[in-house]
Design brief:
The chain has a two-stranded antiparallel ribbon. The chain has a two-stranded antiparallel ribbon with strand order 3-4. The chain has 126 residues and is mainly alpha-helical. It contains 5 helices and 4 strands. The mean pLDDT is 90. The protein starts with a helix and ends with a helix. Helix content is 63%, strand content 10%.
Length: 126
């Protein structure tokens, strides 16, 4: 199938599909005319890419992990132990980021709350 059909079947723009190819996530065959030709398996690959992107992984990590991922119903599962460990490390990194964002959120709330009487007195709309 050509890129337009893959786009229709996956709901992903042709621009994104070209980006996935550029990042080494998709490897379509090239016809003599230069047109990309995708296999049926690329539909599943795009689905896996989207799941891993939604999980917060970057394309470099996804490129490494794709060969070690299998579909387990509606979710993916790692088949290589080292990939499972990489996923755990990535989840830990995300947890730390969430904690930092929550702390920043709380600090901003405190600053806003502390400034409320001052902004009412001075007429700031801030």
């Amino acid at each position: 199938m050509f890129i337009g059909e893959l786009s229709s079947r996956t709901g992903i723009s042709t621009r994104s599909l070209r980006y996935y190819e550029q990042q080494g996530l998709l490897r379509p065959q090239r016809r003599a005319s230069g047109y990309r030709e995708f296999d049926e398996s690329d539909v599943a690959t795009v689905r896996r890419i989207r799941i891993l992107l939604a999980a917060g992984l970057n394309t470099d990590l996804i490129r490494e992990m794709l060969p070690c991922m299998v579909d387990e119903g509606a979710i993916l599962a790692p088949t290589c132990e080292e990939m499972a460990q990489d996923l755990k490390r990535e989840r830990d990194r995300l947890s730390r980021s969430i904690e930092q964002l929550q702390a920043a959120h709380a600090m901003l709330g405190s600053i806003i709350h502390a400034g409320e009487p001052a902004t009412v007195r001075t007429g700031c709309d801030g």
